[in-house]
Each structure stands twice: as C-alpha cells, then as structure tokens.
Specification:
cell cycle, mitosis, TPR repeat
C-alpha cells in the first residue's frame, strides 16, 4: 500500500487501524495487533475511544459504550461526537436524571449549539412529554438546518 512507502511499519499499522475503525463503524470492534506503546496512545485518544464507543452502541453493548463515552467526556466535556453518542446512550438507558443535568448544563454553557437543545429534547422524550420534545428539537433544527440528530 501507499502508506507503507510514506512511513515506518508501526506508524502505518496505527494509521490503518484508525482508518478501519472509522470506516467500519457498524461492525463489532476489531482486535488490533499493534505494538503496546501504540495501543496505549490510542486508548488515550478521544476520537479513537469514541469510535469504539460508537461500535459498542451499534452492537447494543450500552454499558461498554457508556463507560468509554464517560471517560472521554470527563477529559473533554464538549467533544461533539462523544456528546451525540452519550445522549443516545442516556436515552436508550432511560436515564432521566443525567439527561436533565446534561441538557441543563449544555443549554446554559453553549445555547447556540444545537446539541444542547437535542439533549433537552431527549430528556422530554424520555419523560414522555411530546410538546416540549417537539419544541426543543425544533429549536435545535432552527439553529442548524442540517442538524440530522434532531
């Protein structure tokens, strides 16, 4: 492959691993055969962890996905892709308290971000209140017309 010509073997295998994790998002997490120092670096990489969490989510392994998302969001509470997965997990697990807390915090800290109102809308969806759900999801879409999750 071209990548082997541009960098050493360890780097090429790490790049290939990251690429495969991103491309095959609906498959089960793949076992990687990388040097241990590389795996240690990847385990601290937020994007890599969120990709793995997304795979767990799509394979109905919500607890594993939740743990990875929580780890990433502890270090970076505004990781956009991590928040999408985290909100979806909270909805699937029907965690009203955490959804309320997250939605309230996001709406207070970044009201111009549609993901804030997605979290609030999902809270009302879990509590089975259709009118506020519609209102807050519409607000998320009005902030960004191409906001798919809402």
């Amino acid at each position: 492959m071209i990548i082997e010509k541009q960098c050493d073997t360890d780097t090429a295998s790490a790049v290939r691993c990251l690429y495969e994790q991103e491309v095959h998002q609906y498959m089960k997490p793949i076992v990687v055969n990388l040097p241990t120092y590389t795996i240690g670096l990847l385990n601290d990489n937020a994007d890599y962890c969120i990709n793995i969490a997304e795979k767990f989510y799509y394979n109905y392994k919500f607890r594993e996905s939740f743990d990875l998302c929580k780890k990433v969001l502890t270090h970076n509470p505004f990781h956009q892709h991590g928040l999408f997965i985290y909100i979806a997990l909270l909805y699937e697990m029907k965690d009203k308290t955490e959804l309320f807390s997250l939605g309230h915090r996001l709406a207070r800290q970044c009201p111009e971000n549609p993901i804030s109102w997605l979290a609030v809308g999902c809270y009302y969806l879990v509590t089975k209140k259709p009118e506020p759900t519609r209102r807050y999801l519409a607000k998320a879409t009005s902030l960004c017309r191409s906001f798919g999750p809402a």
